[in-house]
């Protein structure tokens, strides 16, 4: 059956139902959601069709609804025949049970029957309809109100990122993406990233805009188009909208959505920080054996860190490490992330992050990184971290590469932890033993002496001891090792032995 034309109005019944601020629930008549609403009336008349105009929305506590199912059917039919837009029935003890016959008739006619939440007064409906219709055919007000409603709902319901963006997409009939325009990665949990062709189009348009993103950019790839808008915040972010029809979204609405997405990005930032802090604590507790093995195993299982794991050591910028943590969090990949000195240590499941992903990330971030062999369980984490750090040491300080433990090491360096321990013991074993027995700091003195280009005065300043003490200790080291500081070969051997010792002991 075809509905009679409703009165004029820019707001529809659908807008009212989908506006979360009103908390309205559709009970029947879905086919009539596009009926226009010219006004919203609170009425206690048992025959509202005789008092209201076509296009009016009936607001009632429900006591005007008849008791008998047959009378309820006629009640709906009469309102439909009068061209009313729908009826909102609030929560009230005087409202009779709404029969299946009544709701079936409403579905057949396409006449919306809506349940109104007790917490929302009818005045809210009246204000919304009045404000929306005062703007004529401009849908921006309605859509902005819906965006604000979705933001409030997301805070109440703790929605996942994709569901939140999906709801905003339905408001403007666009497929929405929130990305980092530099790395071209999603900034919303569980969300996909547009094809790289759109990244190329974005960069080309950015160059035409003198390198600064304007308020809105129009992108075209093939026969498809999209709009981008910067998202103001602490990080580089932009909103990309792909219209699902021929109608472009209103820029004022997109701006409101961009502001809403900034809040979601902030929530992801907070989640990344919480995950990093708790992960760093667990990583340190594991490396320093502060917890019982059974407790550690349970904590790793709780974080879904089971099966084959790998440790990654990165000598990189803090912002690059933060992007790595965000990438894993958004993709739902469990991880631990902490620091040992200036080196970031990450632990992930081997199945989640293949070696190719590490190599791609190294190329993008241009960092130095080392990757351990696969290992199982927290008991082997210390060895894995040492493996990753040793692999990192084989990368040139001026280079950018991912080194695998035991692979591609220079021929003059040991390739494994076992070899590094042998190298350290062979060259420095007597010095290590002397320090242990005498309580001296010969190893520390040798490290400072070589770092200061064999300058006793500079080494003494670094160690806060007298220059003569440095000279005495160096002489003792030469005696114990059989190496001379005047021999370039001996000095090189001592230096690499110190590096091997540090790596074999590091956790």
Automatic annotation (TrEMBL):
PANTHER family: CARBOHYDRATE DIACID REGULATOR, DNA-BINDING TRANSCRIPTIONAL ACTIVATOR ADER. It comes from the Bacteria. Signal peptide: none annotated. This is Putative CdaR family transcriptional regulator. Residues 442-500 form the PucR C-terminal helix-turn-helix domain. It comes from Mycolicibacterium brisbanense. Residues 15-126 form the Purine catabolism PurC-like domain. Pfam families: HTH_30, PucR. Coiled coil: none annotated.
């Amino acid at each position: 059956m075809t509905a009679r034309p409703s009165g004029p109005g820019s707001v529809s019944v659908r807008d009212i139902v989908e506006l979360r601020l009103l908390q309205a629930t559709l009970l029947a008549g879905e086919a009539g959601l596009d009926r226009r609403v010219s006004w919203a009336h609170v009425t206690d008349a048992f025959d509202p069709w005789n008092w209201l105009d076509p296009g009016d929305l009936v607001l009632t506590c429900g006591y005007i609804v008849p008791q008998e199912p047959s009378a309820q059917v006629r009640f709906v039919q009469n309102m439909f025949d009068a061209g009313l837009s729908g009826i909102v029935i609030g929560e009230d003890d005087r409202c009779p049970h709404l029969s299946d016959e009544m709701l079936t008739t409403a579905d057949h006619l396409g006449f919306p029957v809506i349940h109104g939440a007790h917490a929302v007064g009818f005045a809210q409906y009246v204000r919304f309809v009045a404000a929306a219709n005062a703007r004529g055919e401009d849908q921006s007000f309605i859509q902005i109100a819906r965006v604000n409603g979705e933001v409030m709902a997301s805070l109440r319901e703790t929605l996942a990122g994709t569901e939140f963006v999906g709801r905003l997409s339905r408001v403007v009939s666009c497929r929405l993406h929130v990305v980092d325009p530099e790395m071209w990665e999603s900034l919303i949990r569980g969300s996909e990233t547009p094809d790289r062709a759109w990244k190329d189009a974005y960069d080309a348009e950015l160059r035409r805009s003198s390198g600064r993103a304007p308020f809105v950019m129009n992108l075209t790839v093939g026969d498809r188009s999209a709009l981008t808008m910067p998202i103001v915040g602490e990080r580089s972010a932009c909103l990309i909208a792909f219209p699902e029809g021929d109608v472009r979204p209103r820029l004022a609405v997109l701006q409101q959505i961009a502001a809403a997405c900034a809040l979601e990005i902030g929530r992801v930032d907070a989640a990344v920080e919480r995950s990093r802090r708790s992960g760093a604590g667990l990583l340190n507790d594991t490396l320093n054996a502060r917890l019982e093995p059974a407790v550690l195993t349970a904590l790793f299982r709780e974080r879904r860190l089971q099966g084959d794991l790998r440790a990654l050591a990165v000598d990189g910028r803090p912002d690059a490490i933060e992007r790595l943590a965000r990438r894993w969090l958004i993709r739902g990949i469990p991880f631990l992330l902490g620091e040992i000195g200036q080196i970031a240590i990450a632990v992930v499941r081997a199945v989640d992050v293949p070696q190719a992903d590490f190599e791609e990330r190294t190329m993008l971030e241009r960092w130095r990184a080392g990757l351990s062999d696969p290992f199982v369980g927290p008991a082997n984490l210390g060895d894995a971290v040492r493996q990753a750090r040793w692999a990192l040491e084989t990368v040139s300080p001026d280079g950018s590469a991912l080194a695998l433990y035991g692979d591609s090491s220079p021929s003059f360096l040991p390739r494994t932890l076992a070899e590094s321990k042998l190298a350290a013991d062979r060259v420095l074993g007597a010095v290590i033993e002397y320090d242990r027995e005498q309580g001296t700091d010969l190893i520390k003195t040798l490290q400072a002496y070589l770092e200061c280009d064999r300058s006793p005065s500079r080494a003494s300043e670094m160690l806060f001891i007298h220059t003569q003490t440095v000279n005495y200790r160096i002489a003792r080291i030469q005696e114990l090792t059989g190496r001379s500081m005047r021999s370039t070969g001996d000095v090189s051997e001592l230096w690499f032995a110190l590096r091997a010792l540090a790596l074999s002991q590091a956790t």
